[in-house]
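Practice record 12: protein with pyridoxal-5'-phosphate.
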Amino acid sequence: MKKHNFSAGPCILPQEVFKEASQAVLNYNDSGLSIIEISHRSKDFVDIMEEARSLALELLGLEGKGYKALFLQGGASTQFLMAAYNLLQTKAGYINTGSWSDKAIKEAKLFGEVAEIASSKDSNFNYIPKGYEIPTDLDYLHCTSNNTIFGTQIKEFPSSNAPLVCDMSSDIFSRQLDFSKFSLIYAGAQKNMGPAGTTLVVIKEDILGKVERQIPSMLDYKVHLGKASMFNTPPVFAVYTSMLTLRWLKKLGGVAAIEELNEKKAKLIYSEIDLNPLFKGFAATEDRSNMNATFTLVNEDLKETFDTMCKETGINGVNGHRSVGGYRASMYNAMTMESVAALVDIMGDLERKA
Ligand SMILES: *Cc1c(COP(=O)(O)O)cnc(C)c1O
């Protein structure tokens, strides 16, 4: 039985993408070769890389606006340091909305002064700080659009005269935003775009070249841009599968279409969390994420019963992160309304049983 996969990452992908990617592993495009055994310099793979890069820009509405897309390795975690390596000359501002921001801050501190200009640490990151002042002497301002662990999401982004850098690992391509507000966007593929192994970096080229330090080639955005994201062997399977997911998204109607579905899914689960007296939401209502819904049982004694019900219904990956506890339902782009309804149904069943 195919499970309802609520895992936070690596995540669910469209079934048709799994099928096409598996086929390509056996025989890519009837070439008699596997996608993972052909040269990354072959026309077949160069075309895949170029399609992936241009689909990413197209879906974000950033074509012809001075942006380039890269598919790199090392995960979003490498971007924590790479962003600072390339952009931090004197001082950067960071908004701390959870463990991932915290890690980004730690890395940036290796390169210069870091001003933590707002934080929700005082309340275990269950809300998005607002109304803070932004210094005017920043090399860049960094934020995390969606806090995968805590289930909060920035709805209104800060505006600053400094370039805005954003970790969009867990909500990239999930909602419409004016992406041209951002100068650097990065996202590990495995939350909403593809398998683990590649990281999308979307960069406005004019922000580069402003730091004085020497940058090692593999960590230099300019080097990767100069080689069209092929400086070294790219993670071919991860890029290919991400490209298939982006094609799927485009065919569906792009970010506008998926946003509508994502809002419906989120509404369904949050109304159950709000109305069902056995459950309690973790994140502040106005900051709740449409990607990761975090909630707990009011009475922990019901945990075993509810976990058994999840198992019997084929619901997978709903355990909360250890720093929050309870449950987390991740509802990335490829998750269907039916899967969310299956979870909401057993939440209702538990109430009727208890
Ligand atoms: C998962 C996640 C990361 C870490 O990504 P890796 O690719 O594992 O390095 C960073 N930021 C956010 C918001 C995430 O959800």
